[in-house]
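Entry 12.
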Amino acid sequence: MMTDFLLVDDNDTFARLLCRGFKRRGLSLEWAKTGAAALALPARYQGILLDLNLDGESGLQLLPELVLAQPQARIVVLTGYASISTAIAAIKLGAVQYLPKPAEIDAILAAFEEDDAEQAASINIEEESPSLKRHQWEYVQFVLQQHDGNISATARALGMHRRSLQRMLQKHAVSR
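Predicted 3D structure (tokens):
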């Protein structure tokens, strides 16, 4: 069983709650507020929880660096802005699982313990088609990823004003 974890997240409240929950279970969870702080830590973690939307940083861009810096660690991406395109990108870049926030501690720990065969079997494809708003959200996330998280370049590619795109991205992901 894994016991040493690292959380890379810029949300103070979420980080404190998660640290307390891990401590209650007898697990060690160290917290890094930025990518630079996480990369400066020694390679000793068995599991890393990575937020995709760090203040001014993209978790997707940080992910390959974390894989190199902590090669023994299993990385689980945890985000409040879940989309299919970022989930696929995260898995391709080395994450073992992708969970939407809020996630319960038991679900997070289970994500670290799943092997790749279990993960593939647990993927649940919905029978109902996503809504038009969900398709739009997915496409915006795809274009944002193509432009390495650059809001201005993404807005130009989408033919919209940068501020409009920023407002759209500040809202939580559109549900199905």
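Annotation: Residues 132-146 form the longest helix (15 residues). The chain has a mean pLDDT of 84.
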